[in-house]
């Protein structure tokens, strides 16, 4: 969907702006950045910018890269928070370099991203981006706090989702639109496009955690449940559970080592009560919200790509 | 040295701008911010601003507070990096709330600080401040990397010191001068004042680690040495050590549990060869550098306070 030349330039700019004098930091940075990923955030920045001005300018790249740094920084801190052993099929950075180093490298990448914005961006972008970084931390803290909590609300659940993916997607689209010279209305519209596809993306993740197989997912199914996290498939049927079913859910989410048959039982309750279908429906609705925001932009090839991207998110696995 | 009313306003503004909807975050934030501290960073911001415009404006406070948040965020991440058990005589935040929570609260405070700058500051301040945050992370990473390394250079040592305290002091003075309407030359001069007193401050810390007693310091003397860190007192005499003395130092800094008599032996070598005196001299020289930067500012009561502050740093303990 994205030009090979563009992808290659993203990769080369990603290493270009990690220019610390501390060699050790470059080594860790390279390890993490070389582990790949779809570079969805830079792609969103560059596509929104092109949507408005046809071609990218040189200054689009450092900011596209800055948003990937913010994402990478949050993954690094995530790995420390989760005590993760691996990421994208390789040992996680904290396993190789230690938690201390990884926390500091994340801090460096956060600061470097903001520094790039102070050179190539403007104060309005920084306001939007730093607000997103606040919300990312808030969302993750809320998620930690809500582990094992049967009474999580929709509002709390969506706040967690926003922090995980959606606000940073939103900022990418906002910054791209600003780079393209868009109006305030267009910037906000782009932000909502990103926010909505981010939420849909995360909902599908939560769906797949129930629906997929261990082989496809690369981790045990119902992993969220095992970790004590209630996600949309279960949340959406919570009101229709019997008292007995509620007790079962409670037992599973509060147990550090829940039994396999209890997990399976919750999984089939969710399926029977329609939690899976509801999750897909909600995700489609969010994608539709996202696509409708695109009406505020010129109709060209880049708009088509953004439409495809939004739809791809819900259709990716089933 | 600082007005009681000013100190009280700093305290109240510190809690005012921690306004997350996530209550859990407020709780942790309050725990950390209520542990006190001299609020040296806000004081520097406010004093430089007053030096130029006589009185503080309302918008000086959120930025003074933002710089304290950056400091607090770095302390939080430091505690995780060091696995610290206590800070300022209370259990450290990571002991009470866990590493995961503390990492994320630090991230929130970093982001909140930059967000405040996007509202009350300008792009030039953000460039200066985000550059300092980069250097803080770089300095700490370099310090980790240099543990147990006999061949640490002066350049590396001072880069570590800069990251620990000096660059953020520099930014406080830079931001305060910008708030006061100072020229580019004055902002840079203020930055160098802060950088130099920060370096002097840290040198005296390193001096006290050799010279003080366990009671005064609240931790064992020669703690840096125990942790494998070579600081100025030892670094300044390294060239005059015999081969045998070098081997002893090597043994001590590479041993996770060095013997008390070996520590004492290194300590007396440092004293005999003049390492303590050299550290004080270097610190005085840096304070003089700092004071000479003040020539670029109007001569009033606030200038006097900044002179006193600089001198107090070297004279504080002996």
Description:
Two copies of one chain form a homodimer. Chain A is an all-alpha fold and 318 residues long. Helices cover 75% and strands 1% of the residues of chain A. In chain A, strands 1-2 form a two-stranded antiparallel sheet. Chains A and B meet through helix 4, helix 6 and helix 7 of A and helix 4, helix 6 and helix 7 of B.
**What is the CATH level 1 assignment of chain A?**
Mainly Alpha
CATH architecture of chain A: Orthogonal Bundle
Taking the alpha carbons of the first and last residues of chain A, their distance comes to 20 Å
Q: Which assembly state applies to the chains in this document? A: homodimer
Q: Which structural class fits the helix and strand makeup of chain A?
A: mainly alpha
Keywords:
homodimer; 318 residues; mainly alpha; Farnesyl Diphosphate Synthase; 1% strand; globular
What's the short version?
2 copies of one chain form a homodimer. With 318 residues, chain A is mainly α.
Describe how the helices and strands are arranged.
The structure is a homodimer of 318-residue chains.
Chain A: H1 4-16, H2 23-33, H3 40-53, H4 60-82, E1 86-87, E2 90-91, H5 93-97, H6 99-120, H7 123-146, H8 154-179, H9 184-211, H10 214-217, H11 223-226, H12 232-235, H13 243-254, H14 260-272, H15 275-293, H16 301-315
Antiparallel strand pairs in A: 1-2
């Amino acid at each position: 969907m994205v030009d090979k030349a563009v992808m290659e330039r993203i990769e080369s700019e990603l290493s270009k702006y990690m220019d610390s004098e501390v060699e050790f930091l470059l080594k860790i940075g390279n390890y993490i950045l070389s582990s790949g990923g779809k570079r969805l955030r830079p792609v969103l920045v560059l596509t929104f910018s092109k949507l408005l001005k046809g071609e990218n300018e040189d200054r689009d790249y450092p900011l596209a890269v800055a948003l990937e740094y913010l994402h990478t920084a949050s993954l690094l801190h995530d790995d420390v928070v989760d005590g993760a052993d691996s990421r994208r099929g390789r040992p996680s950075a904290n396993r190789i370099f230690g938690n201390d180093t990884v926390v500091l490298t994340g801090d460096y990448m956060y600061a470097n991203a903001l520094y790039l914005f102070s050179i190539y961006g403007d104060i309005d972008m920084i306001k939007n981006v730093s607000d997103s970084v606040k919300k990312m931390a808030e969302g993750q803290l809320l998620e930690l706090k809500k582990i094992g909590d049967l009474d999580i609300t929709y509002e709390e659940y969506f706040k967690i989702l926003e922090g995980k993916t959606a606000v940073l997607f939103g900022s990418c689209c906002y910054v791209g639109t600003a780079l393209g010279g868009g109006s305030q209305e267009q910037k906000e519209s782009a932000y909502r496009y990103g926010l909505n596809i981010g939420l849909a993306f995360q909902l599908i993740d939560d769906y797949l955690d129930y629906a997929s197989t261990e082989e496809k997912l690369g981790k045990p199914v119902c992993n969220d449940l095992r970790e004590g996290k209630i996600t949309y498939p279960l949340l959406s049927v919570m009101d229709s559970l019997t008292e007995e079913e509620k007790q079962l859910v409670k037992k599973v989410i509060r147990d550090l080592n829940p039994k396999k048959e209890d997990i399976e039982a919750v999984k089939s309750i969710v399926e029977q009560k329609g939690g899976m279908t509801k999750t897909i429906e909600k995700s489609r609705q969010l994608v539709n919200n996202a696509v409708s925001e695109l009406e505020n932009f010129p109709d060209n090839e880049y708009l088509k790509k953004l439409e495809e991207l939004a739809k791809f998110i819900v259709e990716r696995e089933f």
